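**User:** Everyone, produce a chain:

**Assistant:**
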Amino acid sequence: MPVTAKDEGLKRVIGVPGLTLSVISGVIGAGIFALPAIAGMALGAFAVVAYMACGILFAAILFCYAEIGSRVTSSGGSYAYVEAAFGTLPGYIINWMYFLGWGIIGSAALMNIITDSLAVLYPAFTNPYLRGALFFVLTVIMVVVNITGAKQAVVVVKTITILKLLPLFGIIIFGFRYVQAANLHWEQLPSFKTFADTTLVLFFAFAGFETSLGASGEIKNPKQTVPLSIGIAGITVLALYLQLQTVVQGVLGADMATHKAAPLAAVAQKIIGPVGSIILVLCAALSCFGNITLDILCTPRCLFAGANTGAFPKFLGRLHPKFGTPYLAITSYGALIFIFSITGGFQQLAIMASTIILLVYLAVMLATVKLRQTKISTGEKYYKAPGGIITPLIGIAAIVWLLTSLGRWEIFSTLLFIFVTGIVYFATHMVKNKRSKLNQANHINNQLQDEKQ
């Protein structure tokens, strides 16, 4: 039978436009403002082929998320999908991996990118105290917006997504006039290793779409909305990336290395002058703000779902009496992002975050295959990814290939994290079992005493 949504008390207010823009916003982050230079310096004009390779891998994963997202419609996103297929322990591990390994650390890193971007225009933001104050103000704003309701948060995400996409579309539309055909010529094919390494880096730029599915319990008609939104968003992201790479490569050419920190800003400066560079720098900061707002909208729903199943403390499952949102989960999550933001030094943690998200994807791919074996009730329909078993197998093979490029430290740290999480899970259940037995014993004793009296 299908995996249906539980009555969680959440309001289903997110439709196709809101979810589509949320997915696009989740994928198109600050990385795209530097990504074309990374690809261009390594592969030259051949970089578009690496984008297409990533697009194939991305499509396989998107199709699987669309299928499983149409079957498992309760809040939690990746966590809910894995738990529905494999049970509470794998779901518990995935929830912690996504919550800590990807969500908090990733958003904290984006917070620092915001201040780094503003520091280009206003050097005062290099001061750690001023940076900390900005972190606090931004966190409070995002937490308040999300507590007042998913609908209001989606409006903010929609607005920011549109504002950050407009300059990117502007570069594509007006930048083609400055493209030089010679810069798009393939002088020689890159080595397979160089191509593979670059594709690996580009693939991480496609991550983040799954964050929006954390609010599954607030999506209208998820069996139709999730596949449609993911499909539209995936096509939009790939098309945008390909065109941006072509324009940047065609305009900058051999000068790519000179502008490796901000290639899009360099193209904007050629189009409309110094003001163009300022606009793109601010756009990068705004993009990060949108991504963090989206994260605070969706990831606390994973905490909310975990609290309802006992994976997280029960207080995280409380809903606001007026707004109907998991306000304690949102506040706690925002506070952790703020704490990690002011600590700094996220380079090694960022590598761990990338490793974590690959493992989360792998678990969801396997969950998709597993749930395909579950028979559905008569009359129940859900989206099924095209290509049969080939589609999830492509995604699984791609993820395994990407994981083989990890170093020993990343592998050891990840295994250690999973091991410790497993220990915490069993320890928590042991405590619960002891409390349950103690409560039963007390209940029996009370009954015996009542009978004696």
In short: Residues 1-8 have pLDDT under 50 and may be disordered. The radius of gyration is 23 Å. DSSP finds 15 helices and no strands in the chain.
